[in-house]
Amino acid sequence: MGSEDGDRRRRRDSRDRRSDRPYDRRRTSVSRDDDRRERDRRSRRHDDDGKDRRRRHHSRSRSPRPRHDRERSSRKDDASPSPPPKRRRRSYSQSKSPPPRRPRGPLPSQQDQFRQGDDAAPAEPVVEKQKPNFNATGLLAKEANTVAGTNTVLKYHEPPEARKPSSKEQWRMFVFKGKDMIDTIHLYSRSCWLMGRDQAIVDFQLEHPSISKQHAVVQFRHITKTNEYGDKLSKVKPYLIDLDSANGTRLNGEKVGGSRYIELRDGDVVGFGDSEREYVMMLPK
């Protein structure tokens, strides 16, 4: 007990001593600064807590709305009384006119381009040009085969190899009626002999009614042949050609084909149409 009373007494003396000390101004200012710092720290903590609360509240407010809320808002928008504005179509009259189409036809003439106003004459209709035709028309041969002074067209014209026979080979054609010789044709005098019923154009007239106006031709041709030894032999020989006559031409009793050359030889007998006259080829030695 005595020790406890002594301790109390010592504590009380020290407290009295502390109270009797003079006022330390420096210590009070330090304690005030500490108090101010503590108040600033608390206010700063309070401000940080408020900012955290506002941030959390803002993040909650920006979170996506539930699905049923969005559906309600979309229904409200659909049920709005004002319809969306219609898109007006632009007409060519209000907007700029479309570019003119380029014509596919030929360009107008230069004279029409220089004419102006109402005096310009209407464009003439376009006439298509005739395309070139390179096929054989026979017009040139028709003009070449026309008999001078008449409108009669010859059925035959001489080929390039036509030649007059030499004077050494005096070909003749003897005309027989039955057993009697009534006429002689000197074939060597010319290169071509046209025979028929038309007296105006033929070289030798055949009077039988079954004979055509231009019936047949005896033509001398220069032909070159190669023999078995390779030698070329050229000679002028007579040929017979029927001009597609109505009753045909006979050679040695057989009818010949039309429009083709057949060689005539010494002693051949030719007949024309239904005539009984015979025309015998002869080459005198």
TrEMBL record:
Record-given protein name: FHA domain-containing protein
Residue ranges, compositional bias (Basic residues): 53-65
Positions of the FHA domain: 193-256
Pfam family, one: FHA
UniProt feature, compositional bias: Basic and acidic residues: 1-52, 66-79
UniProt-annotated stretches for the region Disordered: 1-123
